[in-house]
Amino acid sequence: MKLITKSLVIGMTLISLAACSHMNRTQKNTAVGAAIGGAAGYMIKGNTATTLGGAALGGLIGSQVGK
After folding, report:
1. Which residues belong to the signal peptide in this entry (predicted)?
2. 9 to each of 22, 23, 36, 57, how far by Cα in Å?
3. Per the domain annotation, does 59 fall within a domain?
4. Is 56 within a domain?
């Protein structure tokens, strides 16, 4: 069951990244950071709090990349 969930998370992340074509660089970095952070947070503990925390931290770091 966890394999299916992980696969769905990764698949949805890839699909949502396809919507980044019209964004500027900072917005893309924020979206990618949030997606990677959320996936990492889920992989670490597998609960909502770590997923949201990872997404928030990843988005923050992503928005600061390249400044």
Report:
1. 1-18
2. 23, 22, 10, 18
3. yes
4. yes
Do the domain assignments include residue 52? Answer: yes
pTM for this prediction? 0.68
Q: How far apart are CA 22 and CA 17, in angstroms?
A: 11
Whether residue 12 is contained in a domain is answered as no
The count of structural domains within the chain is: 1
What is the domain extent for residue 45?
A: 24-66
Q: What are phi and psi of 65, to 5 degrees?
A: -70, 130
Query: In angstroms, rounded to a whole number, what is the distance separating the alpha carbons of residues 36 and 7?
Result: 14
* DSSP H helices in the chain: 2-17, 25-45, 48-64
